[in-house]
Amino acid sequence: MTDWFAVEPIAPRTWLIAEPGHVNCFLVEGDDRAVLVDTGLGIGDIGSAVAAVTDRPVLAVNTHSHSDHRGGNRFFTDVAAHPSALDTLAQEVPPAQLRDYLAVAREQLRAYDRMRADDRRFFHLFTRTTEPRPLPPDADEWRVPGGPAARPLADRERIDLGGRELTVLYTPGHSPDSVCLLDEGSGLFFAGDTLITGDFWAHTPDTDLAAFAGTLRWLADDVAGAVSHVFPAHTLRYRVGPDFLRRAADGFADVVSGRSVGEPGADLLGRSVLRHEFGDFTVLRPVS
Ligand SMILES: [Zn+2]
Question: Where does the Metallo-beta-lactamase domain lie (predicted)?
């Protein structure tokens, strides 16, 4: 067990299990069992990190099939996801994709080393929970195998944890297999990549910009009233208020209608995109 994961209580019986600078996973515990929302990169043993927090049986739910949300599935026996994610989850992530990601992760660490002293002197934004960690010593051996077989989750399905319930909401847009999880009793909304306090990825081949805008409008209109905290899967700002649902929906509406004019730029992997800046978040979309 390395200190790759940052674990922090964020609400009663609810924890952030983060790979700081990479992925935010969340553990939600009931009386009978717990749900882990996303399993991260799979470069560290998230099974041990979770077992150190809860002794309940754990269901791992992938918010979608992108590799950084299912990398640690192999540490669990009980996995669930949207039906259209299941084929991808059964396959290994191509090793070349992981090598490319590692190169960017090392670049990110060098960036953090350069800025750490300035942050401690001037800004005080990094905390123990959010400071990026050195890569595990065996990072070059990183593999993400397929499986275990995931069971399908239905839209509006309620996952009973014992005295606590999570509702599955189908939220296509970022990917066709995206879901969010709502803990209505506590007002907690686990957003996956459907809400991001940084770059919204709406430029990859499996993104549907119009569907993404429609999902965000629906969340703002029909779900935000039940939400007190939103927990996105990326960036160091892992908790935002429900107003973010409306602002994200408005931003996407401006992108779809052409009211927002994007600027040429790049995503974190260096691929060309159009960037639509909205102050505390950005919508990335394809150049063409
Ligand atoms: Zn994604």
Answer: 22-234
Q: Is 100 helix (H, G, I), strand (E, B) or coil?
A: helix
Cα 191 to averaged position of ligand 1 atoms, centre (Å): 11
CA-closest candidate to residue 20, choices 54, 53, 49: 49
Q: Report domain extents, the chain.
A: 6-91+143-192+229-240
275 CA distance to ligand 1 centroid (A)? Answer: 17
Distance 175 CA to ligand 1 centre (A): 7
Query: What is the Å distance from ligand 1's center to 209 Cα?
Result: 14
Task: Dump pLDDT digits (tens) for 108-128.
Answer: 999 999 999 999 999 999 999
Tell me the CA–centroid distance for residue 105 and ligand 1, in Å. Answer: 17
CB within 8 A of 127, min separation 6: which ones?
Answer: none
The per-residue pLDDT for range 139-157, each reduced to its tens digit, is: 999 999 999 999 999 999 9
* Architecture in CATH for domain 6-91+143-192+229-240: 4-Layer Sandwich (3.60)
> Do the beta carbons of residue 32 and residue 145 sit within 8 Å?
no
90: exposed, middle or buried (Cβ count in 10 Å: 0-12, 13-18, 19+): middle
Q: How far is the CA of 114 from the centre of ligand 1 (A)?
A: 28
Ligand 1 center to residue 66 CA distance, Å? 5
Cα distance between residue 285 and residue 275, in whole Å: 7
Q: How far is the CA of 52 from the centre of ligand 1 (A)?
A: 27
Going from the Cα of 185 to the center of ligand 1, the distance in angstroms, rounded, reads: 27
**Do the beta carbons of residue 207 and residue 172 sit within 8 Å?**
no
* Angle at which helices 243-257 and 209-218 cross, to 10°: 150
